[in-house]
Amino acid sequence: MNNPLFFVNVFAYFFKVCGAINSSHNGLNPLIFNSFPRCFIDRDDESPHTSLSVCIVEQPVQIHQDVDSKSKRWHFQSYNLTISNIWSPFLVKAATFEDINGVSTAEVQLHLDKLDKKWLDIYPSLDYMIISTGKWFLKAAVYHENDVIVGCHLCPGKNLIELGFEYAYKKTLHYVMDFIKTSKHKGLIFFRTSTPDHFKNGEWHNGGTCPKTIPAKEGEVKIKDLNRILRNIELEEFEKASAKVANNEVNLKLLDFTNLLLSRPDGHPGPYRQLQPYSKNKTAVVQNDCLHWCIPGPIDFWNDVIMEIVVNG
Length: 313
Ligand SMILES: *[C@@H]1O[C@H](CO)[C@@H](O)[C@H](O)[C@H]1NC(C)=O
Ligand SMILES: *[C@@H]1O[C@H](CO)[C@@H](O)[C@H](O)[C@H]1NC(C)=O
Ligand SMILES: *[C@@H]1O[C@H](CO)[C@@H](O)[C@H](O)[C@H]1NC(C)=O
Known about the structure:
alpha/beta, 5 helices
C-alpha cells in the first residue's frame, strides 16, 4: 500500500473500550495488520462517542483533532498510513443540540439534500472507507430540502408535517449512494449497515440494560422493529446503487454484520460506558450502553472480514 488513507466509520459507531481494559493490553485483533499487535487506545472517558481504539503494530502520531474532539486523524510513520475517524452521524448537514449523554434541548435541523462537508472534503483523498449511519435518524428532527422546511419527525406543536424518520433516512441514503456511485472514486468503499442494540426493560435514556453475560443461541434474539426498518432501508438503497456502481467503476461493498451481532447481547459496555461506575457507590444506578461494543469483542470479527476483503478482494 502506497500511503493508504483509511477512513474509519463516518458516523455513529465507536470502538468502545470497556472499563476493564487498559492500553497495554495485548492479544486484540489489529485493525489492519495481521501481525502481533501492540495496542494504541485512545479513550476519552467523558464521551462514549469519541472513543476509538486502534490496535496496531506501532504507536501512531495524532495529526488532527477537530474542535469538539469527535473527529481525529493519526499517522503511522513506518507504513506512511493515515487513519481518520470522522464524526458525521447523519452523513448530511445537521445541526444538533445535545450533551454528551444524548439529552437534547432542541430538534436536530437536518438538510436532506446537502452532504456533510466533514466527510465530503476528505472523500477524494481516501483509499479505503467504511461509511455508516443509522440510529441518529430516530431523533426528533426538522427536515430541510432546498433550504426550505419540508416537515419533521417528533415535533408536536410545531405545526409541521410529520414525515417520519423513514422518509429522511431513505432520502439521505439515496443521496449519499447517488453521490458515491457517480464519484469516479478509485478506492475501496464499504457501506456498513447499522448495528442492532440489546436494550431491555427500557431504552438508553430510561433505564434500559443488557445484563446477559453469554452469547445467545442462533435465532434466540429477534431483531427489533426499529433496527429492522433501518436495515431494510439501508439494504434497499445499497442494492439500487450497487446495480449502477459497476458501470462507473466505483468499488462499493456492503458490510452487514446484523445476524452475528444479534447473537451477542453480552458484547456491550452495559454500565461500563464510564470507567469504574461503581467505585463510589456499589448500588449506584448508572446509564447503560447496550448499543456500542466492547473490545475485545464481537467487532474484532469485522476487522478480520475487512482485512480479508482489502487483501484478497
Ligand atoms: C507518504 O505519502 C505521501 C502522500 O502520498 C507522500 O507525499 C510522501 O512522500 C510519503 N512519505 C514517504 C516517507 O514515503
Ligand atoms: C495494564 O495492564 C498491564 C498488563 O496487563 C498491567 O501490568 C498494568 O498494571 C495495567 N495498568 C492498569 C492501570 O491497570
Ligand atoms: C447509592 O445509590 C443508590 C441508588 O441510586 C442510592 O439509593 C444510595 O443513596 C446511594 N448511596 C450513597 C452512599 O450515595
